[in-house]
Design goal:
It is built from five helices and eight strands, in the order H-E-E-H-E-E-H-E-H-E-E-E-H. With 222 residues, the chain is an alpha/beta fold. Strands 1, 2, 3, 4, 5, 6, 7 and 8 form an eight-stranded mixed β-sheet that branches. A hairpin with a 5-residue loop joins strand 3 and strand 4. The protein is elongated and about 55 Å long. 30% of the residues are buried.
């Protein structure tokens, strides 16, 4: 009985160590993830809009009580040059926060959300002006504004697998159906994986943004 018990303890400890190694990897370092939105062509439409403003109003915390709350390695939560690019936080096998993940320099969460909105509206039959030279259409364009309330990915350790989650909450307002009074659209995904490597993080971000685009399109179709 004692022998079997020791075996179970060994297996459990080995599995836990294995998960910790998978999750930790280079988790103490800052990672860069080049997340992009596939561009959608403008439809031939008389419904013309422009994404006039996208504001990142996310709240970062130094020591968040939950992994879904944005935070940064080294407590750089007051550095806008960093927070505007921050999209995720890594954790070890015990759930302790480690390194963070940013978009490449020159890219921001605001631009990424704008690209997602442009795609959503165009695929819903709206002509989206994204070029200041289109002065002939500017006068007829309805301005649409967006506030980014949440845009974050995080890891939750498990026994045999870990989960990567992503959530986006964006408040959209414009003089168009569904968003006249301002409404928050949520995109969410939870994926299970054996290792929280670059490929897994990228897959989570891509699937999460697909979810967000899909939800925006559902609102526009009502």
């Amino acid at each position: 009985m004692k022998f079997n018990c020791n075996i179970r303890h060994f297996v459990f400890a080995s599995a836990l160590l294995f998960i910790m190694i998978l999750v930790s990897g280079c988790a103490t370092n800052r990672g860069i993830l080049d997340v992009q939105i596939n561009e959608a062509p403008n439809p031939a439409s008389t419904k013309i809009i422009t994404i006039s403003e996208v504001n990142d109003i996310r709240v970062f915390e130094k020591a968040p009580r939950q992994a879904s709350i944005p935070s940064l390695k080294g407590g750089e939560i007051d550095n806008k040059e960093i927070t505007l690019r921050a999209i995720a936080r890594k954790r070890n096998g015990y759930g302790k926060a480690l390194g963070d993940i940013l978009l490449p320099e020159g890219n921001t969460v605001e631009q990424l959300v704008k690209d997602a909105l442009v795609k959503s509206f165009r695929e819903s039959g709206y002509y989206v002006i994204d070029d200041k030279s289109e002065t002939d259409k500017q006068k007829n364009a309805v301005p649409v504004k967006a506030d980014i309330e949440q845009f974050w990915a995080w890891v939750t350790p498990g026994f045999w697998t870990i989960s990567l989650e992503f959530e986006a909450k964006v408040k959209i307002k414009g003089d168009i159906p569904s968003f006249e009074n301002g409404d928050t659209v949520r995109g969410y995904v939870k994926l299970h994986t054996q290792a929280a490597g670059t490929k897994a993080w990228m897959n989570t971000m891509d699937k999460g943004l697909e979810s967000f685009v899909s939800e925006v399109k559902k609102r526009l179709s009502n």
